[in-house]
Structures are given as structure tokens and as C-alpha cells.
Specification:
Shape: globular
Distance between the termini: 90 Å
InterPro entries: F-box-like_dom_sf, F-box_dom, LRR_dom_sf
Helix content: 25-40%
Number of helices: 22
Number of strands: 18
Pfam family, one: F-box-like
Protein name: F-box domain-containing protein
Radius of gyration: 29 Å
Organism: Mortierella alpina
Largest sheet: 15 strands, parallel
Strand content: 15-25%
Strand order of the largest sheet: 1-2-3-4-6-8-10-11-12-13-14-15-16-17-18
């Protein structure tokens, strides 16, 4: 009886004890941190920190907190900027004012430098301030996470890790002011309109953790990078060779001593991106750059380069020197860069020979590029390159007729030879332009200008339906779309809403050169964060479509064009070899008002419709109209997502 009683009592205790679930691996802080270490910043920002409070708190010291300042902003905005500055990891500064007296010497710049200096000194004196707020050390943060105490993390101070200066920046003064407090910088990017000088040895001496370095000269300015590049105390240290952690180096419009550049490359064994764009020569008739020697030096170093660009002012080059600038490294490069003036027919032909190697192509220029380069080279390459992911040709204008698969735009098709400015070049009417479907269906980045060869520029509604319909169907995975065109019809008939099909879009920039434009705000309502039901939804009615078709004189013509025009041209389309059957069916409505109607129907069918859920930045503006009505109306629809005008100009 005694043992039975004890057994009964023990069983009762076991029944009263709550069952404990096995602990999930995701509850272990160390395991979580290891998993998070494999994720990039974008996924951390867009997904991870929104899962739960714990994950949000754990990753505040990892996710970059960005701060943007533009010199046209208000004094109230600048006060808020200074308050947030101690907690910012990434800083972007845009200077729109001309002249040094209205740039770095302004009170804004002086207060900014003082705030950076003060924050740096306070962190050095009291390291516990960093990242987690006053009195919260990293050890205490770990203790709070493990104990479940995640009530309201305080954003504390941090060192500046990424710095970007754009516009009218005197680099020598800017770096002189900021370098003493930039020991933690991993990224330094400066784009300037001024002619200025830079001391590379000071940068390498102060910024020990620098991974990405970019100096870019805008328009007619140039940057002189003075010798020596390697700090004097590191030049003769034979016992312990100096290794810089640099991963990416970009110099555009700069005067570069080649011997110093070669010395630096010898000390950067982890460099994967090297872009030397339009290097400046003091004497065009006697250039100081030896292209062959530099490429041979790079080959001997066995650098893990995946992206490479080498070009300098073409007036000092022999023709045979620019024929194949990238061929010696073709087997290891995934990202190829070309200078616009180097685009010869032989290079365009070479590009088409390596469609399986190139995943990224960038063509940089300081002049507009048209004509046979676009006709025979780039378009053919795009039609045979299924693996291309990133295409940046911001200074190249692509003929819209190459996208008009069914000749919906019936204005006479014409072409003309290469011109620096097509607006002032009389076109030739004896060359036809054949359309085609690009093979790069997984394209994620597209920076390009579009124009229409001939006497009529882009601006009609049909032009927008062709362009936006083509991009949204042929390249549905676009994440970064930046285009420049002469004009755009932002009404629903113009087809801008066709871009709502780009569900992965993160950045959209459309620059327009037209000075005047009429539109209704209701036509833009579809792109709002939370669009309100309004007149735009009623436009999906078939009666509206019918009226527009009759008005444009295409009651029967469009259907004939889409069903029969294409098969009659057997030699016109590289698309037949690459386009899937489903895509061909989708493209049958390209350029038609019917395509717009179907998109609006799809919008209305979705409850709480919201286009571009991943959008991070947007700017639709007229280049000659600062703070114009169109730009402001788009900004109101996506608050907090606007890309500053000066930045937009650098992007496209």
C-alpha cells in the first residue's frame, strides 16, 4: 500500500506538470545570427526585421540606416538631419549649388562636419554608446535578447560606414574635412562637377576598412589623383607586405598616374571590380597611358576580376588600340564595360560571340550615341543573350521601332547614320528598322534612352503603349528601370500603367525632355501606395476602349496588324528563335489600347490593389522643370520613396 500510494502521488504530480515543447533551433540566438550572416541588406531590411520584434531587435546593428540630405531642403529638414546623423550608417549628400562659396563653405556643410567630428569623438571616449544606445553595451544587448527583454530598442550612435557626395563638391576640401573621422568607412563615392585634386595616400592611410572607392567627374570636370598613392610608411615594408581590403575601384574622368595605379593593384588581391572610365590625358597628342602594359600587369596579378572597364580620351588613341579592350580577360569577366566612342562594328560583333559569358554590360559615354551602333550592335546582342541580367547604357538612345513588333506606329520607318545629336541631323529615309524580341527575359537592370528615328519624336500615346508594354512583357523581372525619352503621355491611354506588371520593381526613374505636358491627376492614381476608387477604374469599360479605337482610326487596322502582319515578314525577327509561344500570344496586343484595358481590368479585380510592393525609389520628371507639377504629383502618391532630382540625373 505504501508503494502504491507513492506511485499514485508521483503519477498525480506528473499529470499536473505542464508539458514542455521541444525548443526550436530558431530560438537559439547563436544559430539565428549565423543564418542572418548569409543574407544581404535588402532581404534583411525588407523581410527579416518584419518577422517579429525579436528579429527586429537583433538586427538593428546590421541593417544600414540611411540618411539623405539635399542642399535645396529647408532649415527645418536640416535640423532633423543633424539629430539623426549620429545613428546613420550610410550618408548621401547632394549639392546643387554652383561655386565653392555656396557649397562646402556654407553653414550647412560646417555644421555637418562638426556633427560628424563630435559623434566620432564621443564614440571613442565612450564605446558603450555605439549601436544600442547609452549604457547598452553589446554584451547587454545579447543578454536582453536571450532573456526575451526586447522592449523598444534604442537607436544609439554609430560610426559612419558609407559616404556618398554628389554634385558641386570640392573633393580636396571635403575629404580634408571628413577623412580624420572616417576610420570606419567601407564605401566612399564622390561625383563632382568641379576640377579638383585628390590625395590617394591620405584616403588609404585613414580608411583602413575601405571596400568600395569611386571617384567620378561629371560633365566637363576632371579629377587629378596625385602621387604617391601608397602611404610612404607602407612603401618599403618588405617584412610584412601591405594588403588593402579594396574590392571595387572606379575612376571616371580622372588623371591617373599609371605606375601608382599598378602599385595599388599589386596590393589589392581581392579586387573584383575595376573601372577606369575615360581617363584624362594632359596632352591628347601624347597620352601617358599604356593600355597593353596595364592589361598584362593585371593578368600577372591573377586578380579575381569579374567586372572590368578601361578607356581614355579617344583623341589620343590609335584605332587599333580600341578594337578589343576586354578580350584578354574575356574568360573570367561576367560584367563588361565599354566606352561609347569605342563602339566599333567589330566590337559589337564580338559581343554576340559571347552571349553565355556576359551577365552584365555597361556602356558609358559623355555623348549621346545613336545610329548604326544601336541598329546592328546592341539590338542583335540583346536578341541572342539569354543570360544578360544587367544592362546600363544611359547615354545610348535606342530606336523605339525595334520594339514595335506589329508596326502599330504607322509613321514612316526611317533610320540615319551615327550622329552626336539626332535632333539636328537630317534623317535618311532609305533604311528600314527591323524589330525583334530580346532574349534576356531575366533582365533585372535596364538604364537606357529611347527615341524615334525620323521627323516625329516620342510623345504619342501609341509610343508609350509600345515601350511600356514591351518592357513589362519581355522583361517581367525588372527591378531597376531608368529611362530617358523626349516626351511621355502619362494618361491611361499612354500605357504608363502597363509597368504595374513589374511586380519586382524596386527603382523607377523616367526623365522627360519636353517642356510642357498636360495630364490629369486621376490618371496617376493607379500608382499610389493605396489607390482610392475613382474615375480611373471606370475607364476599363469597353465603351471607352471602343471610343478610343475609333478616335485613333484603328477600328479594324489593329486586329489585322496583330494577326497577319508579323507572319508576312519571315526574315524580320530574331524573336522567332527565342520567344516562347506564350510570350508571342501576349505580344499580339503590343501597342494596342486593348492592352491597357486588360491591365485596368486586372487592377480592378484585385482587392486593395497596390502596384510595386517592393518599390524603394521613384522619380518621374521633366528635366527642364525643377520641382515641376508632374514630379510633385508622383511624389505625393508614393511618400518617402522619391529619388532626389540631382540623384536621378546621375542615374539615367
Amino acid at each position: 500500500m505504501k508503494f502504491a500510494s507513492l506511485k499514485s502521488s508521483s503519477s498525480a504530480k506528473q499529470r499536473s506538470r505542464p508539458l514542455q515543447k521541444p525548443r526550436s533551433p530558431l530560438e537559439v540566438t547563436e544559430i539565428l545570427q549565423h543564418i542572418f550572416s548569409y543574407l544581404d541588406e535588402y532581404n534583411m531590411r525588407m523581410s527579416v526585421i518584419h518577422v517579429c520584434r525579436r528579429w527586429y531587435y537583433m538586427n538593428q546593428h546590421i541593417v544600414m540606416r540611411e540618411l539623405v540630405w539635399h542642399t535645396t531642403s529647408t532649415p527645418e529638414d536640416f535640423s532633423k538631419f543633424l539629430v539623426k546623423l549620429p545613428g546613420a550608417h550610410r550618408l548621401r549628400w547632394f549639392s546643387q549649388f554652383r561655386g565653392a562659396t555656396r557649397n562646402e563653405n556654407t553653414p550647412h556643410w560646417e555644421q555637418f562636419v562638426s556633427a560628424v567630428e563630435r559623434n566620432c569623438r564621443e564614440l571613442q571616449q565612450n564605446p558603450s554608446l555605439q549601436e544600442t544606445g547609452a549604457g547598452n553595451s553589446s554584451g547587454k544587448r545579447e543578454s536582453n535578447i536571450k532573456s526575451g527583454n526586447t522592449n523598444g530598442p534604442q537607436w544609439g550612435r554609430t560610426y559612419l560606414r558609407e559616404l556618398e557626395l554628389n554634385g558641386y563638391i570640392q573633393m580636396s576640401k571635403a575629404l580634408g574635412d571628413l577623412l580624420p573621422f572616417s576610420n570606419a568607412l567601407t564605401r566612399l563615392m564622390i561625383s563632382t562637377y568641379f576640377e579638383t585634386s585628390v590625395f590617394m595616400d591620405q584616403i588609404l592611410r585613414q580608411c583602413h576598412h575601405l571596400l568600395i572607392l569611386r571617384f567620378s567627374s561629371l560633365q566637363k570636370g576632371n579629377i587629378r589623383i596625385l602621387s604617391p598613392w601608397i602611404p610612404i610608411e607602407l612603401q618599403h615594408d618588405s617584412k610584412q607586405p601591405t594588403i588593402f581590403p579594396l574590392r571595387s575601384l572606379t575612376l571616371q574622368g580622372a588623371f591617373v598616374p599609371q605606375s601608382d595605379l599598378e602599385d595599388l593593384l599589386s596590393m589589392t588581391p581581392r579586387l573584383y571590380e575595376l573601372k577606369l572610365i575615360n581617363l584624362f590625358s594632359e596632352n591628347a597628342s601624347n597620352p601617358q597611358y599604356n593600355r597593353s602594359r596595364l592589361i598584362e600587369h593585371i593578368e600577372t596579378l591573377h586578380l579575381p576580376l569579374t567586372s572590368f572597364h578601361l578607356s581614355h580620351d579617344v583623341w589620343g588613341l590609335m584605332l587599333d588600340e580600341v578594337q578589343e579592350p576586354f578580350m584578354p580577360l574575356k574568360n573570367q569577366l561576367l560584367e563588361w564595360g565599354l566606352w561609347g566612342q569605342e563602339l566599333k562594328p567589330s566590337i559589337c560583333k564580338d559581343l554576340c560571340l559571347y552571349p553565355n559569358y556576359i551577365t552584365s554590360l555597361e556602356i558609358v559615354s559623355n555623348r549621346w550615341t545613336y545610329g548604326h551602333t544601336t541598329k546592328e550592335g546592341l539590338h542583335t546582342f540583346l536578341c541572342v543573350s539569354p543570360h544578360l541580367l544587367h544592362l546600363k547604357v544611359p547615354q545610348m538612345f535606342f530606336a523605339l521601332q525595334r520594339l514595335d513588333l506589329h508596326r502599330v506606329d504607322d509613321i514612316p520607318l526611317i533610320d540615319h547614320r551615327l550622329r552626336f545629336n539626332f535632333r539636328y541631323s537630317p534623317p535618311q529615309r532609305n533604311l528600314s528598322i527591323e524589330p525583334g524580341v530580346w532574349a534576356c527575359r531575366r533582365l533585372k537592370t535596364l538604364h537606357m534612352g529611347f527615341h524615334r528615328h525620323g521627323d516625329v519624336s516620342i510623345g504619342a500615346a501609341v509610343h508609350g503603349r509600345i515601350l511600356f508594354g514591351y518592357l513589362s512583357k519581355v522583361c517581367p523581372d525588372l527591378e531597376d528601370l531608368q529611362i530617358r525619352m523626349s516626351d511621355i503621355d502619362v494618361s491611361l491611354q499612354g500605357g504608363l500603367c502597363l509597368l504595374s506588371r513589374l511586380h519586382s520593381l524596386q527603382r523607377l526613374v523616367i526623365a522627360i525632355s519636353a517642356t510642357h505636358q498636360k495630364y490629369k491627376k486621376v490618371d496617376l492614381e493607379w500608382m499610389a501606395d493605396h489607390p482610392q476608387p475613382g474615375p480611373w477604374q471606370r475607364l476599363r469599360a469597353f465603351s471607352w476602349l471602343e471610343r478610343e479605337v475609333v478616335k485613333s482610326g484603328r477600328t479594324h487596322k489593329d486586329s489585322v496588324v496583330t494577326s497577319s502582319r508579323s507572319p508576312e515578314r519571315p526574315n524580320s525577327t530574331p524573336s522567332k528563335e527565342h520567344a516562347e509561344e506564350r510570350l508571342k500570344v501576349d505580344l499580339m496586343r503590343l501597342g494596342l489600347i486593348e492592352d491597357v484595358g486588360m491591365v485596368i481590368e486586372d487592377m480592378a479585380a484585385v482587392k486593395n490593389f497596390r502596384c510595386w510592393p517592393l518599390l524603394q525609389g521613384i522619380s518621374v520628371y521633366r528635366e527642364l522643370d525643377y520641382g515641376g507639377e508632374l514630379e510633385m504629383d508622383v511624389a505625393r502618391l508614393r511618400p518617402g520613396k522619391t529619388i532626389h532630382r540631382l540623384k536621378s540625373r546621375h542615374l539615367v
